[in-house]
Amino acid sequence: MSKQELPIIDARMDTPGAACCAPLACEPLSESEAVELAPLFKAIADPVRLRLLSLIACHEDGETCVCDLTAAFDLTPPTISHHLKVLKQAGLIDSERRGTWVYYWIEPAVLARMSALIGPASPALAGTA
Amino acid sequence: MSKQELPIIDARMDTPGAACCAPLACEPLSESEAVELAPLFKAIADPVRLRLLSLIACHEDGETCVCDLTAAFDLTPPTISHHLKVLKQAGLIDSERRGTWVYYWIEPAVLARMSALIGPASPALAGTA
DNA sequence: TGCCTGCTTCGATGAGCTTCTAATCAACGG
DNA sequence: CCGTTGATTAGAAGCTCATCGAAGCAGGCA
């Protein structure tokens, strides 16, 4: 460990004003912005990781034990651990060990920014219909 | 063409009530839902495709010529064409040939649904204010 | 202390993805 | 009709990624 544990930081989200107000359709993404944003979507561009994220997000306690996550898939624990690591490195989730078990929870900020980026230019008409 | 041009249809978005109101955090994604949703995010999980989408979305005419897109990258036309094909197969863009040039435009519905999926759990308080 | 359970890391393998060059298809002009 | 320009398709090379088995680490219990 201690190699590349730092979460991905994207340029556009660093500038405070642009964080929530510069979706895809407002102005063209620069190459560096795209290079930093793409891995965030790549992190959720996998069925297993999408379900992992959903399972963690839906848990009413706000956090989920790895054992529960592993049980929901036909995959070996190393594979689940790998996917959780990818999500964690993207900054989408965080984890803590408490005694025997490790718990994961959602880090909603990055997900919300990704949603805003691809969302409609005027968020007013987002949830309607 | 005329081979596999059909866009990806995801289960959750077919059910009318769940389309806009079932983000990740509401209830766990089923495996089949995740399998159908993941390719949508994979389509935009590439810096080139993210910039292509942004360039097309930002064009004030609502559509963009391929020649303009190719000029914006240090990539060969076949590579741009490949990425456009991926976006088109995901249903994110559509295209039409008018004379010599081919024009692409955004298909905003799928993008909006993806945004809603990963967006905040209660879309009602998103833009209403 | 020693063992057992839960989770992660390591190393390898097979599939998929990005990119290129070469070739093909479509439209326009002389 | 033929040549030129714009765009896509076909095929291949190189790289990344998902998955597994084996091994390692951390915490609890007798």
UniProtKB/TrEMBL annotation, chains A, B:
InterPro entries: ArsR-like_HTH, ArsR_HTH, HTH_ArsR_DNA-bd_dom, HTH_MetalResp_TranReg, WH-like_DNA-bd_sf, WH_DNA-bd_sf. SMART domains: HTH_ARSR. GO terms for molecular function: DNA binding; DNA-binding transcription factor activity. Keywords: DNA-binding, Transcription, Transcription regulation. It comes from the Bacteria. Residues 29-125 form the HTH arsR-type domain. The keyword Membrane does not apply. NCBIfam families: HTH_metalloreg. PANTHER family: ARSENICAL RESISTANCE OPERON REPRESSOR (PTHR33154:SF18), TRANSCRIPTIONAL REGULATOR, ARSR FAMILY (PTHR33154). This is ArsR family transcriptional regulator.
